[in-house]
Amino acid sequence: MTTSAVHTPRGPVTRKDVARYAGVSTAVVSYVVNGGPKKVAPATEAKVQEAIRILGYRPNAAARALKMGSNQTLGLVIPDSSNPFWALLGHAVEVAAAERGYALLLTNSDNNLDSERRHIRNLADRQVDGVVLASVMFEPDLLELFGTEIRSVLLNHASVAPGFNSVGVDLEAGARLAVEHLIGHGHTNIGLAMGITADNEADGREEGWRRALEAAGLPVGPLARGGFDRPGGYAAGQRLLAADNRPTAIFASSDMQAIGLLRAIREAGLSVPDDIAVASFDGSIEAEYSWPALTTVEQPVWEMAEAAVSALVGENRNEPPQHRVFPTQLRIRQSCGCP
Amino acid sequence: MTTSAVHTPRGPVTRKDVARYAGVSTAVVSYVVNGGPKKVAPATEAKVQEAIRILGYRPNAAARALKMGSNQTLGLVIPDSSNPFWALLGHAVEVAAAERGYALLLTNSDNNLDSERRHIRNLADRQVDGVVLASVMFEPDLLELFGTEIRSVLLNHASVAPGFNSVGVDLEAGARLAVEHLIGHGHTNIGLAMGITADNEADGREEGWRRALEAAGLPVGPLARGGFDRPGGYAAGQRLLAADNRPTAIFASSDMQAIGLLRAIREAGLSVPDDIAVASFDGSIEAEYSWPALTTVEQPVWEMAEAAVSALVGENRNEPPQHRVFPTQLRIRQSCGCP
DNA sequence: GCTTTTTGTTGACTCGAGTAGATCCCGGTG
DNA sequence: CACCGGGATCTACTCGAGTCAACAAAAAGC
Q1: Strand C contact with B65 (CB < 7 A)
Q2: Taking CB atoms and an 8 Å limit, are B263 and A104 in contact across chains?
Q3: How far is the CA of A39 from the C1' of C7 (A)?
Q4: What is the CATH number of domain A73-170+301-327?
């Protein structure tokens, strides 16, 4: 044991070490670190700041979280973070959260309900301040899962669930935009490559496709279902091409699907848009760089992420659940037949 | 006030509530929840389990983290989680972490050094048990940033940094595989679309391209630098096409770059692989679905993520820093000229 | 010069869970 | 019958930070 007054502590530096070094109480250190709730004399503050600097003190987030009941963290549950659309959404949510000082716990449900439930439980245990849930499915027992303690937002969800905040786009209107555009190119036999939604309830995109055709007095074209991903679109495409009344245009319910679809069309020796025109939904970056570039219905992903995060942590977080529906925009490229 | 003995507590349920309900001490509740370190009589255990079930008790992770000094969380810092390659890596890391009971805090550095530093600091403050850092750049002051308290792994990093765990692939060998394959198709003028690395030190991929050409006695073809992303590849492609000695084959340092490159080539009215053959690096899913499908050097992303996570939380986590280099594999598709 | 008020600082309690050490109770032994 | 072993349980302290009531010291008021 030396007799020196102060020596660098070995383990992580705590508030106590700083207090000792600066010759003040631990309370003052807190006041300095948080800028309140009590005032500190300028001279004392300087001493404390110096001590913090010298010792390299960083407050322990776990302790703070315990005391405050919040660890400034949000949870995000998405089906597959390597799918470009979800990846983009994840990125946007991360940025929106970071802007507000929140970190993001990312989890993949792999389109698996059990896995999704486990993740939600886990997030709840970790005392996240809110959960952004992007699920292709919807289960009524979600309400119990979340209990009433934990805030949540359903993102990109088709149906409006009572008791939940939700943020989505007008799927039907978006689909109509695309299909109407294809009709404008003179197509009369327009197929649909539709993703699979667990509840098997007609998705707004399917509805929009039907309505647009009806409104134009056209017959309903062939429909094929498959996953929302590339392989799903590829498989759906093969079936559409094999149909008796092969469509001359196809609307795909996601960009990824459209990319799989393009592949199926190429493999059949046909060309896009000359033999078959294509339009899709989402507006991801892949659509811009595919060949031909995809005409797609763009979702305002960044705004949606903003809205989702602000519903969780904004000052209006104690109001009754909100349902925000964003408009979509048709981004015209070449796959539809436009030059 | 009713006179009933027990009523559901309003706020979150704590260990104390469970103890009261089950008529035991709080210690016993802990023993039951954690299965130790002391034994509990079967009858008592049943009572406690029942109480937990009825009250819906979930232990507070923040409190546990405070006491245990770990919150079973890892941090991941990547340049851009909406870039498919990083997204895939992120997904793989998330899965590897989840398998071990760890959650993943995702952050985007946006290729920005300051932002990267901020995120690392932030993760450290949050007492993550380790950080997976995927950075295109490398800065020597990283060591200080991490201090000695926090474990870290450099993922997908070119240079081997002393004092750090790292996991990567043999970039040079991979690049040679691809370039040698292009040479095998008879090309004698092979260009390079190279990504930009901050330290401006020759990346292994550039080196591999040079070496393969030298070994075959061929002249070094034109080189263009641009971002590793699609726009970067597009820009690099335009420059390569405008070069005096326009190459008949191009090796791109990432799949995303190659996709931008394909676009530039198409816009110039040329075709792949007839006019210009292309091969790239990464092995992401986009490569499989692009047109034409990209011949690419595949990185074993899942194994790499496994290795990275296990270096952080495995039982060998206290050994000296390891540097693991994985082999790559050439995935042959059509963009190189193969049928 | 002696109250008031203001300003600055501190000790002590709190959050919820982990766990060592003390205590209690029971059957078995000398 | 006093004693001991040992299993089951409880008490009490700990982790690190936020914050309030209490207090000391300095400033202002009369």
Answers
A1: no
A2: no
A3: 9
A4: 3.40.50.2300
**CATH 1.10.260.40 region(s) of chain B?**
15-59
Token couple for A338: 């436009």
Topology classification of domain B72-170+301-328? Rossmann fold (3.40.50)
Buried (b) or exposed (e) across A28-48, using 16+ Cβ within 10 A? bbbbbbeeeeeebeeebbebb
Residues of A in contact with B271 (CB under 8 A): none
Contact across the interface for A98 and B88, Cβ inside 8 Å? no
CA distance B244 to B225: 17
Task: Tell me whether residues A84 and B81 touch, CB distance under 8 A.
Answer: no
pTM above 0.85, yes or no: yes
Residue A136 has what pLDDT? 65
Whose CA is closest to B52, among B71, B24, B72?
B24
Secondary-structure breakdown of chain A: helix, strand, coil percentages, each rounded to the nearest 5? 40, 15, 40
| Contact criterion met (CB below 8 Å) for B299 and B285 | no
pLDDT digits (tens, 9 = 90+) for A169-198: 999 999 999 999 999 999 999 999 998 876
Question: Parallel, antiparallel, or unpaired for β B190-195 and A103-108?
Answer: unpaired
Q: Which of B56, B62, B263 is facing A65, going by the closest CB pair? A: B62
pLDDT digits (tens, 9 = 90+) for B37-67: 888 889 899 999 999 999 989 899 899 999 9
Second CATH level (architecture) for the domain B171-299: 3-Layer(aba) Sandwich (3.40)
In whole angstroms, D10 C1' to B104 CA is: 38
**A219 and A247 in contact (C-beta within 8 Å)?**
no
Q: With a 7 Å cutoff on the CB, does B27 touch strand C?
A: yes
- Residues in chain A with CB shorter than 8 Å from the CB of B106 are 90, 94, 104-106
Whether any strand C atom is under 7 angstroms from the Cβ of A24: the reply reads: yes
Residues of chain A with CATH 3.40.50.2300: 73-170+301-327, 171-299
* A321–chain B nearest CA distance, Å: 21
The string of pLDDT tens digits covering residues A251-297 is: 999 999 999 999 999 999 999 889 999 999 999 999 999 989 999 99
Residue B108 contacts residue B79 (beta carbons within 8 Å): yes
Nearest amino-acid residue to C19, taking CA and C1': B37
Closest CA in chain A for residue B14: A125
Question: Using the CB atom, is residue A28 less than 7 Å from strand C?
Answer: yes
Among A81, A259, A263, A280, pick the best mutation site for testing chain B contact (most B Cβ within 10 A). A81
Cα–Cα distance between A27 and A40 in angstroms, integer?
A: 10
Q: Which fold, A15-59?
A: 434 Repressor (Amino-terminal Domain) (1.10.260)
Q: List all residues 6 or more positions away from A169 whose beta carbon is below 8 Å from its beta carbon.
A: A156, A299, A300, A304, A325, A326, A327, A328
CA A284 to CA B87: how far, in whole Å? 14
